[in-house]
């Protein structure tokens, strides 16, 4: 374990004690009756990367384990379709809805419609704009990673790895999504503190490999002085590696890469020396999400924000962690 990994581990241990309770009781929310089994909805945002496949598998496995009926929808990357998917779940009379909102603002009407229909909602993985819909008031709880902290951890690793000197290209996640907004906030905040670190350009790669590759290709051409890529997820980082190689440069040497997720291909890229580090964002929500719903039905206090325990991967632990990745 490097010193930076050790420090990150300390930070994460301090912040994540499995789940971080941050306050008040649910108030004015639809109740959930205690029953032997439930009909639950899970509204997924898209299914175009390993992270999403792992998340969906975890939700389906947990539903099957508990004997719950799961109404599953895939919005295929469209916020409008995801709103329609939630409305369809309401019409089908589900007892509870698990929602991974694609973007922060467009999914607010879906959250409010479920509340009005008397169906409790748990936001998992991504959040909505909390000035428009509040956890513990409009939806029961947000369960997920601290995306600002993820961006901050990536930035702090980079400061150490470059001795505070870098020309950075930032490849952002899907525009308007909470991980893209928060990972940018966390990372850019660290970089601002270091006068010799510059973000030359910041552009979306929509959280997918091919768009990440295309964005990296265009940015590398426009900024030949770049020597770092910060990607908001591993899929875009892997796409960037292809773009760097196609440009005749060496990923990990000419251009350092730091990213977020901890998927198998990301850890393999660290082992191969093509990527420097990745901050884990755990996609396995099934056990925590279903437990929260059952606890809610029992009348237990549900924290409005429950933060996942995540790790940090670099050359010191990528090989040992890859078998458990996805
Ligand atoms: O919301 C979490 C992000 O969404 C993951 O980092 C990304 O890979 C996924 O599509």
As laid out across the biggest beta sheet, the strand order is 2-1-3-4-5-11
Order of helices and strands: HEHEHEHEEHEHEHEHEHEHEEH
Q: Helix/strand-derived class?
A: alpha/beta
Query: Uncertain spans, ≥5 residues at pLDDT below 50?
Result: 1-25
| SS field, number of helical segments | 11
Biggest sheet layout: 6 strands, parallel
The residue fraction in helices comes out at 40-55%
How does the SSE layout of this entry go?
Layout: H1 3-15, E1 39-44, H2 50-66, E2 69-74, H3 79-91, E3 96-99, H4 108-116, E4 121-124, E5 141-144, H5 147-162, E6 166-172, H6 178-192, E7 197-204, H7 209-222, E8 228-231, H8 234-246, E9 256-261, H9 264-271, E10 277-280, H10 286-297, E11 305-307, E12 312-313, H11 318-321
Parallel strand pairs: 1-2, 1-3, 3-4, 4-5, 5-11, 6-7, 6-8, 8-9, 9-10
Antiparallel strand pairs: 10-12
Bound molecules: alpha-L-arabinofuranose.
């Amino acid at each position: 374990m490097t010193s930076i990994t050790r420090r990150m581990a300390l930070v994460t241990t301090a912040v994540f004690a499995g789940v971080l309770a941050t306050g008040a009781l649910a108030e004015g929310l639809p109740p959930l009756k205690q029953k032997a089994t439930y009909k639950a909805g899970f509204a997924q945002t898209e299914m175009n990367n390993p992270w999403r496949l792992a998340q969906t598998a975890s939700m389906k496995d947990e539903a099957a384990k508990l004997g719950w009926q799961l109404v599953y929808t895939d919005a295929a990357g469209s916020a409008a379709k995801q709103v329609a998917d939630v409305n369809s779940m309401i019409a089908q009379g589900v007892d509870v809805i698990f929602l991974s909102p694609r973007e922060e603002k467009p999914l607010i009407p879906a959250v409010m419609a479920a509340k009005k229909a008397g169906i409790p909602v748990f936001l998992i993985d991504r959040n909505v704009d909390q000035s428009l819909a509040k956890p513990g008031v409009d939806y029961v709880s947000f369960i997920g990673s601290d995306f600002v902290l993820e961006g901050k951890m990536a930035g702090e690793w980079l400061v150490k790895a470059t001795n505070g000197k870098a020309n950075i290209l930032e490849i952002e996640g899907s525009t308007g999504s909470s991980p893209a907004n928060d990972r940018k906030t966390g990372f850019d905040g660290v970089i601002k503190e270091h006068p010799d670190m510059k973000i030359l350009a910041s552009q979306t790669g929509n959280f997918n490999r091919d768009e990440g590759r295309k964005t990296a290709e265009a940015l590398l051409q426009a900024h030949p002085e770049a020597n770092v890529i910060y990607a908001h997820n591993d899929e875009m980082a892997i796409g960037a590696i292809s773009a760097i190689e196609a440009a005749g440069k060496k990923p990990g040497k000419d251009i350092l890469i730091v990213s977020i997720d901890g998927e198998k291909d990301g850890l393999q890229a660290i082992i191969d020396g093509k990527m420097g580090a990745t901050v884990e964002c755990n996609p396995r929500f099934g056990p925590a999400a279903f437990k929260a719903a059952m606890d809610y039905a029992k009348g237990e206090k549900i924290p409005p924000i429950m933060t996942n325990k995540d790790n940090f991967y670099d050359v010191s632990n990528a090989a040992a962690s890859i078998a458990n990745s996805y």
